[in-house]
Amino acid sequence: MTLLAIENITVKYGPIPAIRDVSLRIGEGETLAVVGANGAGKSTLTLAITGIVRPASGRIEFSGRSLLGLGPEATARLGVALVPEGRHIFEGLTVDENLLLGTTVLADRSSARHAMAQSYEMFPILHERRNGMATRLSGGEQQQLAIARALLSKPRLLILDEPSLGLSPVMVDKIYAILSELKSLGTTLLLIEQNPARIDEVADRVIVLSSGAVQASGLAAEILADEQLHASYLGGVALGARQ
Amino acid sequence: MIYVIQTLVDAVSVGAVYALSALGIGLLFGVMRLVNFAQGEFVTIGIYTLMLTVGLWFPLAAILTVLVVVLLALLADRLAFKPVRDADPATMLITSFALSYLLQNVLVLIFGARPIGFNIIPELGLPVMIGEIRIPRLNILTICVAVGLLTGIALFLRRTRIGIEMRAAAVDFRMARLLGIKGDRVIAVAFALTGVLSAVVAVLFAAQTGTAAPTYGLQLALVGFVATVIGGMGSLVGAVFGGMIVGVVTVCLQALLPPELRVFREAFVYAVVIAILVLRPDGLFQGVGSRERV
Ligand SMILES: Nc1ncnc2c1ncn2[C@@H]1O[C@H](COP(=O)(O)OP(=O)(O)OP(=O)(O)O)[C@@H](O)[C@H]1O
Ligand SMILES: [Mg+2]
Questions:
Q1: With pLDDT > 90 as the criterion, what percentage of chain B qualifies?
Q2: Is B168 an interface residue toward A (CB < 8 Å)?
Q3: Which ligand is nearest to the CA of A36?
Q4: What's residue A240's pLDDT?
Q5: Which residue, among B30, B34, B29, B27, has the nearest Cα to B84 in the 3D structure?
Q6: Residue A113 touches partner B, C-beta closer than 8 Å
Protein backbone atom coordinates (compact mmCIF):
# COMPACT_ATOMS: atom_id res chain seq x y z
CA MET A 1 0.00 0.00 0.00
CA THR A 2 1.42 3.36 -1.00
CA LEU A 3 1.24 5.87 1.84
CA LEU A 4 2.86 8.86 0.18
CA ALA A 5 2.94 9.44 -3.55
CA ILE A 6 4.69 12.43 -5.02
CA GLU A 7 4.42 13.01 -8.73
CA ASN A 8 6.50 15.47 -10.68
CA ILE A 9 6.58 18.27 -8.17
CA THR A 10 8.47 21.46 -8.86
CA VAL A 11 9.03 23.98 -6.08
CA LYS A 12 10.30 27.46 -6.77
CA TYR A 13 11.57 30.19 -4.51
CA GLY A 14 11.18 33.10 -6.86
CA PRO A 15 12.03 32.19 -10.44
CA ILE A 16 14.58 29.45 -9.70
CA PRO A 17 13.29 25.96 -8.99
CA ALA A 18 14.73 24.39 -5.82
CA ILE A 19 13.36 21.02 -6.86
CA ARG A 20 12.34 20.00 -10.36
CA ASP A 21 10.01 17.22 -11.43
CA VAL A 22 10.60 15.10 -8.36
CA SER A 23 8.59 11.91 -7.98
CA LEU A 24 8.72 9.32 -5.24
CA ARG A 25 6.62 6.79 -3.42
CA ILE A 26 6.73 5.44 0.09
CA GLY A 27 4.85 2.31 1.03
CA GLU A 28 3.25 1.75 4.40
CA GLY A 29 5.92 0.65 6.90
CA GLU A 30 8.74 1.37 4.49
CA THR A 31 11.81 3.53 5.08
CA LEU A 32 12.90 5.73 2.21
CA ALA A 33 16.13 7.68 2.45
CA VAL A 34 16.77 10.79 0.39
CA VAL A 35 20.43 11.74 0.07
CA GLY A 36 22.11 14.63 -1.66
CA ALA A 37 24.66 17.37 -1.20
CA ASN A 38 24.21 20.84 0.22
CA GLY A 39 21.47 22.74 -1.56
CA ALA A 40 20.21 19.69 -3.42
CA GLY A 41 16.66 20.50 -2.39
CA LYS A 42 16.19 17.92 0.37
CA SER A 43 14.69 20.28 2.93
CA THR A 44 12.54 21.89 0.29
CA LEU A 45 11.04 18.47 -0.36
CA THR A 46 10.10 18.15 3.34
CA LEU A 47 8.58 21.63 3.32
CA ALA A 48 6.49 20.80 0.27
CA ILE A 49 5.13 17.61 1.81
CA THR A 50 4.26 19.30 5.10
CA GLY A 51 2.51 22.21 3.41
CA ILE A 52 4.93 24.98 4.33
CA VAL A 53 5.71 25.72 0.70
CA ARG A 54 3.37 25.06 -2.20
CA PRO A 55 4.68 23.33 -5.30
CA ALA A 56 4.30 25.21 -8.57
CA SER A 57 3.21 21.99 -10.19
CA GLY A 58 2.83 18.29 -9.54
CA ARG A 59 0.84 16.19 -7.08
CA ILE A 60 1.32 15.04 -3.51
CA GLU A 61 -1.00 12.37 -2.22
CA PHE A 62 -1.06 10.94 1.26
CA SER A 63 -3.11 7.84 1.77
CA GLY A 64 -4.96 8.67 -1.41
CA ARG A 65 -5.70 12.28 -0.42
CA SER A 66 -4.15 15.32 -2.01
CA LEU A 67 -2.06 17.38 0.39
CA LEU A 68 -1.76 20.36 -1.92
CA GLY A 69 -3.02 23.60 -0.42
CA LEU A 70 -3.80 22.06 2.96
CA GLY A 71 -1.16 23.94 4.94
CA PRO A 72 0.92 22.56 7.81
CA GLU A 73 -1.79 22.37 10.49
CA ALA A 74 -4.11 20.20 8.43
CA THR A 75 -1.25 18.08 7.10
CA ALA A 76 -0.15 17.37 10.67
CA ARG A 77 -3.70 16.37 11.53
CA LEU A 78 -3.69 13.83 8.70
CA GLY A 79 -0.69 12.12 10.29
CA VAL A 80 2.45 13.63 8.79
CA ALA A 81 5.10 14.68 11.33
CA LEU A 82 8.37 16.45 10.65
CA VAL A 83 11.58 16.50 12.65
CA PRO A 84 12.97 19.56 10.91
CA GLU A 85 16.52 20.40 10.05
CA GLY A 86 17.97 22.26 13.02
CA ARG A 87 15.47 20.58 15.40
CA HIS A 88 13.44 23.71 16.13
CA ILE A 89 13.03 23.12 19.83
CA PHE A 90 10.89 25.87 21.38
CA GLU A 91 13.11 28.26 23.28
CA GLY A 92 11.81 29.39 26.64
CA LEU A 93 9.68 26.28 27.02
CA THR A 94 10.49 23.33 29.23
CA VAL A 95 11.12 19.84 27.89
CA ASP A 96 7.68 18.85 29.15
CA GLU A 97 5.98 21.79 27.44
CA ASN A 98 7.77 21.04 24.17
CA LEU A 99 6.54 17.47 24.33
CA LEU A 100 3.03 18.48 25.32
CA LEU A 101 2.72 20.47 22.10
CA GLY A 102 3.54 17.29 20.21
CA THR A 103 0.18 15.92 21.36
CA THR A 104 -1.79 18.79 19.80
CA VAL A 105 -3.48 16.66 17.17
CA LEU A 106 -4.51 13.87 19.54
CA ALA A 107 -8.22 13.63 20.21
CA ASP A 108 -8.38 14.21 23.96
CA ARG A 109 -6.49 14.86 27.15
CA SER A 110 -6.32 11.29 28.34
CA SER A 111 -4.79 10.01 25.13
CA ALA A 112 -2.35 12.92 25.32
CA ARG A 113 -1.37 11.98 28.87
CA HIS A 114 -0.98 8.37 27.88
CA ALA A 115 1.18 9.29 24.90
CA MET A 116 3.38 11.49 27.09
CA ALA A 117 3.93 8.64 29.55
CA GLN A 118 4.89 6.33 26.68
CA SER A 119 7.25 8.93 25.30
CA TYR A 120 9.01 9.39 28.62
CA GLU A 121 9.42 5.64 28.82
CA MET A 122 11.05 5.53 25.41
CA PHE A 123 13.25 8.58 26.14
CA PRO A 124 14.31 8.35 29.80
CA ILE A 125 16.74 11.25 29.48
CA LEU A 126 13.83 13.54 28.61
CA HIS A 127 11.93 12.35 31.65
CA GLU A 128 14.93 13.15 33.80
CA ARG A 129 15.11 16.66 32.35
CA ARG A 130 11.40 17.25 31.90
CA ASN A 131 11.16 20.41 34.02
CA GLY A 132 14.33 22.00 32.66
CA MET A 133 14.50 24.44 29.78
CA ALA A 134 14.58 22.49 26.53
CA THR A 135 17.33 24.60 25.02
CA ARG A 136 19.62 23.64 27.90
CA LEU A 137 19.73 20.08 26.61
CA SER A 138 22.75 18.92 24.63
CA GLY A 139 22.46 18.69 20.85
CA GLY A 140 21.82 14.96 20.93
CA GLU A 141 19.24 15.30 23.67
CA GLN A 142 17.52 18.06 21.72
CA GLN A 143 17.43 15.80 18.69
CA GLN A 144 15.78 13.11 20.82
CA LEU A 145 13.31 15.72 22.04
CA ALA A 146 12.50 16.73 18.47
CA ILE A 147 11.92 13.09 17.52
CA ALA A 148 9.87 12.40 20.65
CA ARG A 149 7.77 15.51 20.02
CA ALA A 150 7.07 14.44 16.45
CA LEU A 151 6.18 10.89 17.55
CA LEU A 152 3.68 12.14 20.12
CA SER A 153 1.21 12.92 17.36
CA LYS A 154 1.24 9.21 16.52
CA PRO A 155 2.13 10.01 12.90
CA ARG A 156 1.55 7.65 10.00
CA LEU A 157 4.58 9.16 8.29
CA LEU A 158 7.62 10.51 10.12
CA ILE A 159 9.95 12.75 8.15
CA LEU A 160 13.43 13.39 9.58
CA ASP A 161 15.60 16.07 8.02
CA GLU A 162 19.29 15.39 8.75
CA PRO A 163 18.74 14.03 12.26
CA SER A 164 22.40 13.21 12.74
CA LEU A 165 23.76 16.57 11.63
CA GLY A 166 26.31 18.03 14.04
CA LEU A 167 26.09 15.22 16.58
CA SER A 168 28.91 13.28 18.18
CA PRO A 169 29.42 9.68 16.95
CA VAL A 170 27.93 8.34 20.18
CA MET A 171 24.82 10.44 19.70
CA VAL A 172 24.55 9.45 16.05
CA ASP A 173 24.58 5.82 17.25
CA LYS A 174 21.80 6.66 19.67
CA ILE A 175 19.69 8.38 17.01
CA TYR A 176 20.14 5.48 14.58
CA ALA A 177 19.23 3.02 17.32
CA ILE A 178 16.01 4.96 17.79
CA LEU A 179 15.34 4.95 14.05
CA SER A 180 15.92 1.19 13.88
CA GLU A 181 13.51 0.71 16.75
CA LEU A 182 10.88 2.87 15.04
CA LYS A 183 11.34 0.91 11.84
CA SER A 184 10.91 -2.38 13.66
CA LEU A 185 7.70 -1.01 15.19
CA GLY A 186 6.41 -0.49 11.66
CA THR A 187 6.68 3.30 11.46
CA THR A 188 6.90 4.68 7.95
CA LEU A 189 10.00 6.86 7.67
CA LEU A 190 11.26 9.40 5.21
CA LEU A 191 14.86 9.94 6.21
CA ILE A 192 16.83 12.83 4.75
CA GLU A 193 20.60 12.75 5.07
CA GLN A 194 23.43 14.58 3.42
CA ASN A 195 25.92 12.03 4.65
CA PRO A 196 24.86 8.55 3.50
CA ALA A 197 27.27 6.77 5.88
CA ARG A 198 24.66 5.26 8.17
CA ILE A 199 21.49 5.03 6.16
CA ASP A 200 22.06 1.43 5.17
CA GLU A 201 21.07 0.54 8.74
CA VAL A 202 17.49 1.59 8.21
CA ALA A 203 16.72 2.44 4.58
CA ASP A 204 14.83 0.04 2.33
CA ARG A 205 15.15 2.27 -0.69
CA VAL A 206 17.26 5.33 -1.46
CA ILE A 207 16.76 8.32 -3.71
CA VAL A 208 19.69 10.49 -4.75
CA LEU A 209 18.85 14.14 -5.22
CA SER A 210 21.13 16.60 -6.94
CA SER A 211 20.43 20.17 -8.04
CA GLY A 212 16.80 19.63 -7.28
CA ALA A 213 16.33 16.58 -9.48
CA VAL A 214 16.25 12.85 -8.82
CA GLN A 215 19.48 11.36 -10.16
CA ALA A 216 18.98 7.78 -9.08
CA SER A 217 16.65 5.67 -7.06
CA GLY A 218 16.46 2.05 -6.11
CA LEU A 219 17.01 -0.49 -3.39
CA ALA A 220 19.30 0.74 -0.64
CA ALA A 221 21.87 -1.98 -1.16
CA GLU A 222 22.22 -1.21 -4.87
CA ILE A 223 22.35 2.56 -4.63
CA LEU A 224 24.72 2.64 -1.70
CA ALA A 225 27.14 0.26 -3.38
CA ASP A 226 27.25 2.25 -6.60
CA GLU A 227 30.70 3.84 -6.71
CA GLN A 228 29.77 5.97 -9.66
CA LEU A 229 26.89 7.60 -7.77
CA HIS A 230 29.07 8.20 -4.78
CA ALA A 231 31.74 9.84 -6.85
CA SER A 232 29.26 12.09 -8.62
CA TYR A 233 26.76 13.07 -5.94
CA LEU A 234 27.70 11.92 -2.49
CA GLY A 235 31.10 13.37 -1.87
CA GLY A 236 33.05 10.49 -3.36
CA VAL A 237 33.11 8.08 -0.42
CA ALA A 238 31.56 4.76 -1.29
CA LEU A 239 29.46 3.37 1.47
CA GLY A 240 30.95 -0.06 1.10
CA ALA A 241 34.21 1.40 2.32
CA ARG A 242 32.82 1.77 5.80
CA GLN A 243 32.60 -1.95 6.53
CA MET B 1 9.33 61.68 53.16
CA ILE B 2 5.55 61.59 52.94
CA TYR B 3 5.75 63.44 49.64
CA VAL B 4 8.27 60.90 48.36
CA ILE B 5 6.02 57.97 49.20
CA GLN B 6 2.98 59.62 47.67
CA THR B 7 4.91 60.38 44.52
CA LEU B 8 6.17 56.80 44.36
CA VAL B 9 2.67 55.37 44.67
CA ASP B 10 1.59 57.73 41.94
CA ALA B 11 4.53 56.68 39.78
CA VAL B 12 3.82 53.00 40.24
CA SER B 13 0.17 53.40 39.36
CA VAL B 14 0.98 55.28 36.15
CA GLY B 15 3.67 52.70 35.45
CA ALA B 16 1.10 49.94 35.95
CA VAL B 17 -1.18 51.36 33.26
CA TYR B 18 1.76 51.73 30.87
CA ALA B 19 2.85 48.19 31.67
CA LEU B 20 -0.56 46.83 30.67
CA SER B 21 -0.47 48.83 27.46
CA ALA B 22 3.04 47.58 26.70
CA LEU B 23 2.07 43.98 27.41
CA GLY B 24 -0.73 44.27 24.85
CA ILE B 25 1.71 45.48 22.21
CA GLY B 26 4.25 42.83 23.25
CA LEU B 27 1.82 39.91 23.12
CA LEU B 28 0.76 40.61 19.58
CA PHE B 29 4.28 41.36 18.47
CA GLY B 30 5.28 37.99 19.90
CA VAL B 31 2.96 35.88 17.80
CA MET B 32 2.64 38.08 14.71
CA ARG B 33 5.77 40.28 14.58
CA LEU B 34 3.27 43.11 14.26
CA VAL B 35 3.41 46.36 16.19
CA ASN B 36 -0.28 47.10 16.40
CA PHE B 37 -0.69 50.85 16.68
CA ALA B 38 -4.45 50.40 16.35
CA GLN B 39 -4.32 49.11 19.92
CA GLY B 40 -4.49 52.82 20.79
CA GLU B 41 -7.95 53.02 19.27
CA PHE B 42 -9.00 49.85 21.09
CA VAL B 43 -8.29 51.85 24.25
CA THR B 44 -10.00 54.99 22.96
CA ILE B 45 -13.13 53.09 21.98
CA GLY B 46 -13.07 51.55 25.44
CA ILE B 47 -13.02 55.02 26.96
CA TYR B 48 -15.99 56.14 24.84
CA THR B 49 -17.84 52.95 25.73
CA LEU B 50 -17.43 53.86 29.39
CA MET B 51 -18.58 57.39 28.67
CA LEU B 52 -21.73 56.11 27.00
CA THR B 53 -22.46 53.73 29.85
CA VAL B 54 -22.08 56.29 32.63
CA GLY B 55 -24.94 55.77 35.04
CA LEU B 56 -24.83 51.99 34.78
CA TRP B 57 -23.55 50.10 37.80
CA PHE B 58 -19.76 50.51 37.41
CA PRO B 59 -18.72 46.83 37.33
CA LEU B 60 -21.34 46.20 34.66
CA ALA B 61 -20.06 49.13 32.60
CA ALA B 62 -16.53 47.80 32.97
CA ILE B 63 -17.54 44.31 31.81
CA LEU B 64 -19.41 45.81 28.87
CA THR B 65 -16.30 47.77 27.95
CA VAL B 66 -14.19 44.63 28.00
CA LEU B 67 -16.72 42.83 25.78
CA VAL B 68 -16.90 45.67 23.26
CA VAL B 69 -13.13 46.04 23.01
CA VAL B 70 -12.47 42.30 22.75
CA LEU B 71 -15.03 42.07 19.97
CA LEU B 72 -13.39 45.02 18.25
CA ALA B 73 -9.96 43.39 18.54
CA LEU B 74 -11.26 40.13 17.08
CA LEU B 75 -12.91 41.98 14.21
CA ALA B 76 -9.70 43.88 13.53
CA ASP B 77 -7.87 40.57 13.32
CA ARG B 78 -10.41 39.05 10.95
CA LEU B 79 -11.10 41.98 8.69
CA ALA B 80 -7.91 44.04 8.69
CA PHE B 81 -4.94 41.88 9.63
CA LYS B 82 -5.81 38.40 8.44
CA PRO B 83 -5.77 39.39 4.76
CA VAL B 84 -2.21 40.75 5.08
CA ARG B 85 -0.85 38.13 7.46
CA ASP B 86 1.57 36.63 4.96
CA ALA B 87 2.64 39.99 3.60
CA ASP B 88 5.89 41.59 4.67
CA PRO B 89 6.15 43.33 8.06
CA ALA B 90 6.00 46.79 6.48
CA THR B 91 2.60 46.02 4.97
CA MET B 92 1.29 44.83 8.33
CA LEU B 93 2.65 47.94 10.03
CA ILE B 94 0.98 50.19 7.47
CA THR B 95 -2.26 48.26 7.94
CA SER B 96 -2.09 48.94 11.66
CA PHE B 97 -1.54 52.65 11.03
CA ALA B 98 -4.38 52.72 8.52
CA LEU B 99 -6.77 51.01 10.92
CA SER B 100 -5.68 53.33 13.73
CA TYR B 101 -6.27 56.38 11.54
CA LEU B 102 -9.60 55.09 10.29
CA LEU B 103 -10.97 54.37 13.75
CA GLN B 104 -9.70 57.68 15.09
CA ASN B 105 -11.47 59.59 12.36
CA VAL B 106 -14.68 57.66 12.81
CA LEU B 107 -14.55 58.70 16.45
CA VAL B 108 -13.97 62.33 15.48
CA LEU B 109 -16.99 62.12 13.17
CA ILE B 110 -19.21 60.73 15.91
CA PHE B 111 -17.98 62.53 19.02
CA GLY B 112 -15.99 65.50 17.68
CA ALA B 113 -12.31 66.16 18.27
CA ARG B 114 -12.64 67.88 21.64
CA PRO B 115 -12.30 66.10 24.96
CA ILE B 116 -15.63 65.31 26.59
CA GLY B 117 -15.75 65.23 30.38
CA PHE B 118 -17.60 62.53 32.30
CA ASN B 119 -17.34 61.07 35.73
CA ILE B 120 -17.25 57.35 36.39
CA ILE B 121 -17.25 57.08 40.15
CA PRO B 122 -16.34 60.22 42.01
CA GLU B 123 -15.56 58.30 45.23
CA LEU B 124 -12.48 56.84 43.54
CA GLY B 125 -10.85 60.25 43.79
CA LEU B 126 -11.07 60.24 47.57
CA PRO B 127 -7.87 59.36 49.37
CA VAL B 128 -7.16 56.61 51.85
CA MET B 129 -5.10 57.80 54.81
CA ILE B 130 -2.31 55.52 55.95
CA GLY B 131 -0.91 57.42 58.90
CA GLU B 132 0.11 60.75 57.40
CA ILE B 133 0.15 59.49 53.85
CA ARG B 134 -2.72 60.26 51.50
CA ILE B 135 -3.16 57.73 48.77
CA PRO B 136 -5.98 58.14 46.25
CA ARG B 137 -8.21 55.08 46.13
CA LEU B 138 -7.87 55.10 42.38
CA ASN B 139 -4.13 54.49 42.69
CA ILE B 140 -4.70 51.53 44.92
CA LEU B 141 -7.35 50.17 42.59
CA THR B 142 -5.06 50.67 39.58
CA ILE B 143 -2.15 48.87 41.16
CA CYS B 144 -4.32 45.98 42.38
CA VAL B 145 -6.04 45.56 39.02
CA ALA B 146 -2.73 45.66 37.16
CA VAL B 147 -1.08 43.13 39.47
CA GLY B 148 -4.14 40.89 39.27
CA LEU B 149 -4.30 41.05 35.48
CA LEU B 150 -0.56 40.50 35.03
CA THR B 151 -0.69 37.50 37.34
CA GLY B 152 -3.71 36.16 35.50
CA ILE B 153 -2.03 36.48 32.11
CA ALA B 154 1.20 34.95 33.42
CA LEU B 155 -0.74 31.95 34.73
CA PHE B 156 -2.66 31.72 31.47
CA LEU B 157 0.59 31.62 29.48
CA ARG B 158 2.24 29.07 31.78
CA ARG B 159 -0.58 26.77 32.79
CA THR B 160 -3.07 26.48 29.95
CA ARG B 161 -2.48 24.60 26.75
CA ILE B 162 -3.44 27.54 24.57
CA GLY B 163 -1.10 29.70 26.65
CA ILE B 164 1.78 27.30 26.02
CA GLU B 165 0.81 27.20 22.34
CA MET B 166 1.02 31.00 22.27
CA ARG B 167 4.49 30.99 23.77
CA ALA B 168 5.60 28.37 21.28
CA ALA B 169 4.08 30.27 18.35
CA ALA B 170 5.84 33.41 19.53
CA VAL B 171 9.28 31.80 19.29
CA ASP B 172 8.70 29.58 16.24
CA PHE B 173 5.42 30.09 14.44
CA ARG B 174 6.18 27.64 11.65
CA MET B 175 7.19 24.82 13.99
CA ALA B 176 4.03 25.38 16.01
CA ARG B 177 1.94 24.98 12.86
CA LEU B 178 3.87 21.84 11.92
CA LEU B 179 2.67 20.31 15.19
CA GLY B 180 -0.91 21.03 14.21
CA ILE B 181 -1.29 24.15 16.35
CA LYS B 182 -3.82 26.38 14.62
CA GLY B 183 -2.08 29.65 13.82
CA ASP B 184 -5.39 31.45 13.31
CA ARG B 185 -6.62 30.48 16.72
CA VAL B 186 -3.39 31.48 18.48
CA ILE B 187 -3.48 34.88 16.78
CA ALA B 188 -7.17 35.37 17.59
CA VAL B 189 -6.50 34.59 21.26
CA ALA B 190 -3.60 37.05 21.24
CA PHE B 191 -5.92 39.71 19.81
CA ALA B 192 -8.55 38.89 22.42
CA LEU B 193 -5.95 39.29 25.17
CA THR B 194 -4.84 42.65 23.84
CA GLY B 195 -8.54 43.54 23.79
CA VAL B 196 -8.86 42.69 27.48
CA LEU B 197 -5.70 44.65 28.29
CA SER B 198 -6.83 47.65 26.23
CA ALA B 199 -10.23 47.67 27.90
CA VAL B 200 -8.69 47.60 31.36
CA VAL B 201 -6.28 50.38 30.37
CA ALA B 202 -9.30 52.34 29.11
CA VAL B 203 -11.18 51.89 32.39
CA LEU B 204 -8.20 52.92 34.51
CA PHE B 205 -7.32 55.84 32.25
CA ALA B 206 -10.90 57.10 32.13
CA ALA B 207 -11.20 56.81 35.89
CA GLN B 208 -8.03 58.85 36.23
CA THR B 209 -8.74 61.61 33.71
CA GLY B 210 -12.53 61.62 33.51
CA THR B 211 -12.40 62.70 29.87
CA ALA B 212 -12.63 61.07 26.48
CA ALA B 213 -10.90 62.30 23.33
CA PRO B 214 -10.15 60.54 20.03
CA THR B 215 -6.37 60.76 20.45
CA TYR B 216 -5.93 59.47 24.00
CA GLY B 217 -5.38 55.87 23.06
CA LEU B 218 -2.72 56.55 20.48
CA GLN B 219 -0.54 58.21 23.12
CA LEU B 220 -0.89 55.12 25.29
CA ALA B 221 -0.09 52.82 22.39
CA LEU B 222 3.03 54.86 21.63
CA VAL B 223 4.12 54.63 25.25
CA GLY B 224 3.43 50.90 25.07
CA PHE B 225 5.55 50.61 21.95
CA VAL B 226 8.43 52.57 23.48
CA ALA B 227 8.17 50.40 26.59
CA THR B 228 8.42 47.18 24.59
CA VAL B 229 11.46 48.54 22.78
CA ILE B 230 13.14 49.33 26.09
CA GLY B 231 12.18 45.95 27.48
CA GLY B 232 13.42 44.11 24.40
CA MET B 233 10.97 43.38 21.56
CA GLY B 234 9.44 39.99 22.10
CA SER B 235 10.10 39.71 25.82
CA LEU B 236 6.82 39.99 27.72
CA VAL B 237 8.51 40.44 31.07
CA GLY B 238 10.61 43.13 29.40
CA ALA B 239 7.49 44.89 28.10
CA VAL B 240 5.97 45.01 31.58
CA PHE B 241 9.17 46.36 33.11
CA GLY B 242 9.61 48.80 30.24
CA GLY B 243 6.11 50.16 30.84
CA MET B 244 6.79 50.48 34.52
CA ILE B 245 10.07 52.31 33.86
CA VAL B 246 8.49 54.80 31.46
CA GLY B 247 5.67 55.47 33.93
CA VAL B 248 7.93 55.89 36.94
CA VAL B 249 10.39 58.10 35.06
CA THR B 250 7.57 60.28 33.75
CA VAL B 251 6.00 60.84 37.17
CA CYS B 252 9.33 61.35 38.93
CA LEU B 253 10.42 63.91 36.35
CA GLN B 254 7.12 65.69 36.83
CA ALA B 255 7.83 65.84 40.55
CA LEU B 256 11.55 66.62 40.41
CA LEU B 257 11.94 68.95 37.46
CA PRO B 258 11.80 72.65 38.21
CA PRO B 259 8.43 74.02 37.06
CA GLU B 260 9.83 75.89 34.06
CA LEU B 261 11.26 72.64 32.68
CA ARG B 262 8.17 70.49 33.22
CA VAL B 263 6.79 71.26 29.78
CA PHE B 264 9.81 69.44 28.41
CA ARG B 265 9.11 66.38 30.55
CA GLU B 266 8.49 64.15 27.54
CA ALA B 267 11.80 65.14 26.03
CA PHE B 268 13.55 64.07 29.24
CA VAL B 269 11.64 60.77 29.28
CA TYR B 270 12.80 60.02 25.76
CA ALA B 271 16.33 61.06 26.66
CA VAL B 272 16.25 58.31 29.29
CA VAL B 273 14.84 55.90 26.70
CA ILE B 274 17.63 56.76 24.27
CA ALA B 275 20.22 56.35 27.01
CA ILE B 276 18.89 52.88 27.81
CA LEU B 277 18.96 51.90 24.16
CA VAL B 278 22.49 53.19 23.69
CA LEU B 279 23.62 51.03 26.58
CA ARG B 280 21.45 48.03 25.66
CA PRO B 281 20.50 48.18 21.98
CA ASP B 282 18.41 44.99 22.20
CA GLY B 283 16.53 46.23 25.26
CA LEU B 284 16.85 45.34 28.88
CA PHE B 285 15.55 41.82 28.45
CA GLN B 286 16.74 39.84 25.53
CA GLY B 287 13.74 39.12 23.35
CA VAL B 288 13.08 37.07 20.27
CA GLY B 289 12.09 40.16 18.32
CA SER B 290 15.30 40.53 16.43
CA ARG B 291 14.55 37.23 14.79
CA GLU B 292 12.29 36.80 11.82
CA ARG B 293 8.94 35.19 12.15
CA VAL B 294 9.54 31.75 10.60
N1 LIG C 1 13.51 30.35 1.57
C2 LIG C 1 14.28 30.25 0.48
N3 LIG C 1 14.33 31.26 -0.41
C4 LIG C 1 15.09 31.17 -1.51
N5 LIG C 1 15.84 30.11 -1.83
C6 LIG C 1 15.84 29.08 -0.99
C7 LIG C 1 15.07 29.09 0.22
N8 LIG C 1 15.27 27.91 0.85
C9 LIG C 1 16.12 27.22 0.09
N10 LIG C 1 16.46 27.89 -1.02
C11 LIG C 1 17.35 27.42 -2.08
O12 LIG C 1 16.78 26.23 -2.60
C13 LIG C 1 17.80 25.27 -2.86
C14 LIG C 1 17.51 24.00 -2.08
O15 LIG C 1 17.60 24.27 -0.69
P16 LIG C 1 17.32 23.16 0.41
O17 LIG C 1 17.39 23.83 1.73
O18 LIG C 1 16.08 22.44 0.07
O19 LIG C 1 18.57 22.22 0.24
P20 LIG C 1 19.07 21.02 1.15
O21 LIG C 1 19.29 19.87 0.25
O22 LIG C 1 18.17 20.82 2.28
O23 LIG C 1 20.48 21.57 1.65
P24 LIG C 1 21.23 21.32 3.04
O25 LIG C 1 21.93 20.01 2.93
O26 LIG C 1 22.20 22.45 3.10
O27 LIG C 1 20.22 21.34 4.11
C28 LIG C 1 19.11 25.92 -2.46
O29 LIG C 1 19.71 26.42 -3.61
C30 LIG C 1 18.71 27.04 -1.55
O31 LIG C 1 19.61 28.11 -1.63
MG1 LIG D 1 18.38 20.93 4.26
A1: 68
A2: yes
A3: 1
A4: 42
A5: B34
A6: no
Residue B94 lies in a domain: yes
Compute the mean pLDDT over every residue in chain A, rounded to the nearest whole number. Answer: 93
Check: CB of residue B29 under 8 Å from CB of residue B207.
Answer: no
Count contacts between A and B (CB, < 8 Å). 64
The CATH number for B220's domain is 1.10.3470
Given a contact cutoff of 8 angstroms between Cβ atoms, the answer to whether B251 and B34 are in contact is: no
DSSP E strands in chain B: the ranges are 116-117, 127-130, 133-136, 211-212
User: What domains can be seen in chain A, in order of their start residue?
Assistant: 2-242 (3.40.50.300)
Per-residue pLDDT band at B26 (split at 50, 70, 90)? very high
Is the minimum distance from the CB of A4 to ligand 1 under 6 angstroms?
Answer: no
Among A49, A96, A101, pick the best mutation site for testing chain B contact (most B Cβ within 10 A). A101
Full-model pTM:
0.91
The answer, yes or no, to whether ipTM is higher than 0.90 is yes
Residue B273: which domain range? 2-114+133-279
Residue B200, in any domain of the structure? yes
Which chain A residues touch B167 with a CB distance below 8 Å? 90, 92-93, 97
List the one residue out of B229, B244, B242, B247 whose CA is nearest residue B289: B229
CA distance B129 to B4: 15
Length of chain B equals 294
